[in-house]
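Why do we bother with holo predictions? Because pocket geometry can differ from the apo form. Keep that in mind while you read this record for 1-deoxynojirimycin.
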Amino acid sequence: MGDSAKKWWQTAVIYQIYPRSFCDSNGDGIGDLQGIIQKLDYIQKLGVDAIWLSPVYRSPQDDNGYDISDYQDIDPMFGTLADMDELIAEAARRHIRIIMDLVLNHTSDEHPWFVEAKKGKDNPYHDYYVWRDGKEGEYPNELKSAFCGPAWEWVPECGQYYLHQFSVKQPDLNWENPKVREEIYRMINWWVDRGVGGFRLDVIDLIGKEPDSMVMAEGKMLHPYLKEMSKAAFRRNNLVTVGETWSATPESAWLYSNPDGSELSMVFQFEHMVLDQKGNVKWDLEPLPFVKFKQVLSKWQKELEGKGWNSLFLENHDLPRSVSRFGDDGKYRVQSAKMLATMLHGMKGTPYIYQGQELGMTNVKFDIEDYRDIELLNLYKERISQGYDELDVMRSIYAKGRDNARTPMQWDESKNAGFTTGTPWLRCNPNYTIINAKEALTNRDSIFYYYQKLISLRKSESIFTEGVYELLQEENENIFAYTRETEKEKLLVLCNFRGKEVSCVLEQGWKDGEVLIANYDGPYPEGVLRPYEAKIIKKKKEGFHA
Ligand code: NOJ
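The structure, written out:
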């Protein structure tokens, strides 16, 4: 297969599972691997090709598993290595690959490497982490942790600070140390040998950090490290690799996702996810600038054409629910969830569906003591101590808190949404009595079946993978409209982002096109789109009539 041949992941749709919130098989209130195995038929029914599993490695769970203390074991709360092997095999039987989450920028402070490293400067593991000399109380510099407070922590035994870009319990690994890189590549190969189908690489743009010059993302050595890792570990078994890169620009994405396979398959870029905020603080809310939103998504479509590969997503375990954020989680919940799915799945790239997105799950409003996320709780403490108005802080948490995405998966209308027979680690969204998988599976008009249809269209119509993207009516404040085009065919994707009727004038020729999918039935006056209406129309081009 040449470089230009289609890769399996280019026609694939990937489903993300946040294991602790997916399905609890043993009643301890926390989702687990056996729970996932029980739900594989449900996932298969949706039609996806792979599951990205947020971390299930051994971990003290300070950041819900993004703090790993053993990369080669499963945390007992999730199960055992044997359960993991069973999951890989059971998924494979259903033609589904398992993508593991690799957290390589940092480990847990309880990882044996760090336990050794902090014993003293002479310890052989000391140099596995990033240390700077200093005096207690005088930080090496102003670097801040993503979870509030300084990014440096003092260790008296060493008379030094260590770097932690996330919590104090997540010390940053020192990628400059070749031994660290070798250990990591060995570990990745061990998972590949076990049969995993790929990797999602947590905050991978940070590994080339240069803390002394305050350059954390996309440091000079980032791409050389990625090339080395790709060579050492990623070039077999048709793996898919997707990097989490908050700092990616289209130019860097050409490198990350170079079709020659020298680095990764694709990256998650977040430019469209940081528009409804002031500056780079996600908690400082701003209304979504809709035209800008279209321009950003379109820019990525255009810039990566022929040069790289996009990942397409509106949700994950760190982001609020898309129907609450970009649609309407009240009256038009169903229509707007389908509209958002249409907008995203019509684009070029690999779509990701986050658990519950296929049900139109929504954000929550809890009291502060009902939240569990370290980022959100730190933010609350910090802002209250700085004198912010509590209502204001809670408004930010309702809109952007990560626990919005982490409430238990809503399986049915029984107690705790059928997620657990015990006490769930995080409260359920009370709307589970209405929004749940059981209801979705019995209702032919459900969001679930709409996703199922979108996924099958991506498989049957190659224009979804190949067609070149073009934004229409850029300045239109209501409608997101674009085309996809190949030599033979053209698709029109039309999405009304408003909860009201809007007028929509179509170019000649589309009226007779074939409607591949739509979120409303029946005829309607020409030139009008109903609230959150969406459709995809296909037409053959001149000279290519069947
Ligand atoms: C990104 C992950 O998605 C997030 O959940 C985590 O807290 C940070 N990286 C740190 O690993």
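The longest strand covers residues 489-496.
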